[in-house]
UniProtKB/TrEMBL annotation:
It comes from Aquabacter spiritensis. GO terms for molecular function: hydrolase activity. Gene3D superfamilies: alpha/beta hydrolase. This is Phospholipase/carboxylesterase. Pfam families: Abhydrolase_2. The lineage of its organism: Bacteria, Pseudomonadati, Pseudomonadota, Alphaproteobacteria, Hyphomicrobiales. Residues 18-205 form the Phospholipase/carboxylesterase/thioesterase domain.
Length: 211
């Protein structure tokens, strides 16, 4: 864990052991922390550098990346500010470590903040795997996402995310130019082996093979 107070996010960093792989930015869900998605990151891209920050907002003692007003109702002003702050952290951390922009792998709240960064600061990310994501902001993406690869994996029995909301996110990112693949799995809100297998294949085909 870093002790550098000039980087404002508590985080874990694992250096690459296999040169040439695009780093992964791991973004946990509500109640998680900087350790939660490290095993997933190692599965998805063995040997890649991993950057895993902890959300700075506490909700009933549980870390999140931005505030919400109710289940599925986000504090839009806070989303914008937190997305920009996280994008600043990503760019600073990658510059210091000599890495290119990472691929975000976010789950739930982590997927939503990754989507918000795509909306506002697309240059901070090379692409994204959004696991159980919702529309983070009601306005359309402001940035140019032309050619940016995005995988969205939704659950057909997800009690938290309406199917229409995930579809709207996919449509908005595609309208901004992203190369979106949206798949709906037989799953609820939690992750399954299918999520892992599909994300592994997508990353290998889209990025890890040398794009």
């Amino acid at each position: 864990m870093t002790t550098d107070t000039s980087i404002p996010f508590v985080h874990r960093y694992e250096p690459a052991t296999e040169p040439g792989r695009t780093p992964l930015l791991l973004l946990h869900g509500t109640g998680g922390d900087e350790n939660d998605l490290l095993p997933l990151g190692r599965l998805l891209s063995p040997g890649a550098a991993l950057i895993s920050p902890r959300g700075q907002v506490l909700e009933n003692g549980m870390p999140r990346f931005f505030r919400r007003l109710a289940e599925g109702v986000f504090d839009a002003e806070d989303v914008r500010a937190r997305a920009d702050a996280l994008a600043d952290f990503i760019e600073t951390a990658c510059a210091r470590c000599g890495h290119p922009a990472p691929i975000a792998v976010g789950f739930s709240n982590g997927a939503n903040i990754a989507a918000a960064i795509l909306y506002r600061r697309p240059q901070a990310l090379a692409g994204a795997v959004l696991l159980r994501a919702m529309v983070p902001l009601e306005e359309a993406p402001a940035g140019d996402l032309t050619g940016k690869p995005v995988l969205i994996l939704s659950g057909n029995a997800d009690p938290i995310i309406p199917a229409a909301n995930a579809e709207r996110l996919a449509a908005r990112l595609a309208a901004a130019g992203a190369e979106v693949e949206h798949r709906v799995l037989r799953a609820a809100h939690g992750l399954t082996q299918s999520d892992v297998a599909i994300a592994q294949t997508w990353l290998a085909q889209t990025w890890l093979a040398g794009k």
